[in-house]
Amino acid sequence: MDIQTKIGSEKSGFSGHLLLWGKCLIGLAAFIYILSGFYRIKTYETGVLRLFGRVINDHVGPGLHYAIPYPFTRIDKLRPQERKRVAVGFEFSDQVIGMGGNPVQGEFLSGDENILNIEMVLQYFIVSPVEYLFRVYDPETVIKSFAKTNLTKIISQMEVDEIFKGSGKVLIQSGVLKKTQDDLDRILDNQKWVQITSVNLQNVSPPLEVADAFKDVVTARQDRDRLINEAEGYRYDALPRARGKAEELVQQAGIYRQDKIDLSRGDAERFLRMAEEYAQKGSVTSMRLYLETMEKVMERIHKVFVQKTKDQKPLDLSIIDLED
Predict the structure, then answer these.
(1) Which of 189, 115, 195 is nearest to 155 (CA)?
(2) Potential cystine with 72: which of 68, 294, 297, 299 (Cβ 3.0-4.6 Å)?
């Protein structure tokens, strides 16, 4: 065998090895590619499977699944029951790093033209994953925009005193929740794709420049409410007692009236009997009345009894103190 033949056989053997290694690599890559079609959905997740961009399964349940690997299919994983949050008037990232953020985004104008700084947090969860992923562009921004618009409308229709009342925040939160939910449903022909669970006003405060004046107003309002409550408490305590006293006086007056009536009737009846008696036995009756009257009069008169003797001089009764 000459040298050229030997070199040719070596080249042929090397090419065969390369071809074999290439086939192995291609087979391994194909095997890995096929394995990449397996995916896992966790218990708290829901998957949306797409084939060439078209949804073929909008609710892939938890567990291990297989689909034709990317780029033919794509799986989007969501957590429908997870409560997602949207911030209005501030940014969550600013709170995390301790920055004050842009104060302008939290400024709202009340109905009586007062500027207030308001921070609100809205919570929601996904109802329809397909609509959330593909029919609404940037859902979080849409939700935040509607919530801020409705908050602005509601605040602009209320005065500052009404906002700071105990029921003011409740009215704002319930109003924003209802109006925002209606707006979100309306953009998909009244189809519910997210559900708002709560709206919470974390902070409602005046700008720093007038914070002291607002505090004075709030303090004055609290003093007013306290005095009103104290007056109401005194009223609720005094009125029942006054009514009870008035009822007692009325009853006593009724008893006194009845006593007087009964006494007057008794006197009148006695007088009539005396008049009848006097008509029948005038002299006897008049004598009896005279004696009864003198008996009553003489009881109140001081009486002095002097025994008279022959040689006794007249007694001067003026020396006796008759006033005792």
Answers:
(1) 115
(2) 68
